[in-house]
Structure formats: structure tokens, C-alpha cells
Amino acid sequence: METSWLAPSILSADFSRLGDEIRNVLEAGGDIIHFDVMDNHYVPNLTFGPMVLKSIRNYGITSIIDVHLMVSPVDDLIVQFSDAGADFITIHPESTNHLHRSLNLIKSCGCKVGLGINPATSLNILEYVMDQLDIILLMSVNPGFSGQNFIPSTFKKLLQVRKLIDNSHKNVLLEVDGGINLDNLKEIASFGVNIFVVGSAIFKAKNYKKIINDMRHKLN
Ligand code: DX5
Ligand code: ZN
Fold first, then answer.
1. What's the 113 CA to ligand 1 centre distance in angstroms?
2. What is the pTM of this model?
3. Which of 39, 92, 148, 196 to mutate to test the pocket of ligand 1 (most atoms within 8 A of CB)?
4. What is the pLDDT of residue 141?
5. Is the CB of 198 under 6 A from ligand 1?
6. Does 169 belong to an annotated binding site?
7. CA geometry: angle at 153 spanning 72 and 218, to 5°?
8. Which ligand is nearest to the CA of 180?
């Protein structure tokens, strides 16, 4: 069975009740938790650091935590997030001077290795790093904020990335992040996406179970 996971992004959660929000969205059927780390430098917004992840683990959350690092420099935080309990770590090529080394660092920490591609970033970068990757995260909005609209040119890139992954004969997961909702989920899924990051569309819904069930039906 192909992986097809809904990854609620806690960027849109109520931070004053973060542990409960995560527990609730997992009980409602979320598969993994997407954890958006922003530094007000690589992106114009500021969120949470490794201490917050550590306290989520201490609270008893055992699900896969998919850490999306939108920070520069990134290497120190790769190690800190791994120590805090990350399972997947995705970084952006623009956030490091030595991408190959940073990707190796994620692997040496024992985490799954992800590369995030922004809307205006070329896919050429994949040519020399594909062998290092477990996940390609295609940004369908410019990173920094939840609640933005899905950028339509992502579809063309999705097609290209899917082909690159298939031709590599490697088990690389294709993840899409930004602007995903009930209306566009089915079309996005038709490109063979494995992980769907959903922030505002889940957390703005009153009933997490209902919205996640409705989304799951679109995937089946
Ligand atoms: C944006 C983040 C996303 C964001 C998605 O920089 O990487 O994960 O939380 O939020 P929505 O689903 O509201 O676009
Ligand atoms: Zn993200």
C-alpha cells in the first residue's frame, strides 16, 4: 500500500493548549504531526524551538513528528531537534551553505531526510542530492504563514517531481505543504502525493474528526 498520510500542521493550532490540540488532532485521525519551525530570518515569522518539541514528547505524544525547518543557519538546530524527538527533518536548500553536508547531518542523527522546495526554486537541485533523500517536500505556498492560497504552478512541479522520484527507483516520499483544503485535495492526490500537510483547513474546522474523515474520503 502506498503511503497516504494527512499531516496536520500545528502552526494553525491554539498554542495555549498545544499538547491537547495535538492529542485531539491525532485522535481525530491525523497520521503524523507537522511542526513548522520559523526564525524571522529565513522566513518572516517566528514560531517554536526544540524545547517545545521536547515538552510535547514529555506530554506523551508518540506519533511521528515531521519537523519542517525554515531557519538559517540550520545545522545546529538539526541536531537539537533530533535530540528533542524529531522523526523527520526537512530543510531548504537556501538555508545552508553546504546542502550535501546538512543532509548528511540529518541522516547521521537518525532522522528521515527531507528537502523542501519553494515555489520559485528550481528542481535542478535534486539532481545531485536525490540519493540522500527520504522525503521531497514541495511547497505550494511561499513558506512563512498558514492560510495562504495554493499556488497553481505547483501542479506542473508535482508532475515533474513524481517522475523524478519514480525514475530514481528510490523509496522517496512526496510531501506537499500549503493551501491544501477539501476542494483541492483530490486533484493534488492524483499526482501521487504521499504526505499532505494541512494547517488552517483542519484547525479552523470545529470538528477535527469530521474534517479529517471528509479529507480521507477524498483520498480513497
Ligand atoms: C507554511 C508552512 C505550512 C503551513 C500550512 O510555511 O510550512 O506547513 O502551516 O498551512 P496551511 O495549510 O494553512 O496553508
Ligand atoms: Zn510546513
1. 19
2. 0.98
3. 148
4. 98
5. yes
6. no
7. 100
8. 1
> β-strand 65-70 against 88-91: which pairing, if any?
parallel
pLDDT of residue 168: 96
The CA–CA distances, whole Å, from 30 to 164, 175, 205 equal 28, 15, 14
Query: According to the model, what pLDDT value does residue 129 have?
Result: 98
Distance 198 CA to ligand 2 centre (A): 9
* Adjacent-strand bridge partners of 204: none
Cα 91 to Cα 114: distance, rounded to the nearest angstrom: 6
pLDDT score, position 78: 99
Whether 76 is a known active-site residue: answer no
Measured torsion, CA atoms of residues 209, 211, 213, 216, in degrees rounded to the nearest 10: -140
36, 39, 66, 134: which one is catalytic? 36
* H helices present in 28-74, as ranges: 50-58
CATH class of 5-219: alpha beta
| Domain parsing of the chain, residue ranges | 5-219
**Over the chain (220 residues), what is each successive 10-residue block's mean pLDDT?**
95 98 98 98 98 98 98 98 99 98 98 98 96 98 98 98 97 98 98 98 97 96
Which protein residues have a CB closer than 5 Å to ligand 2 (ion)? 36, 68, 177
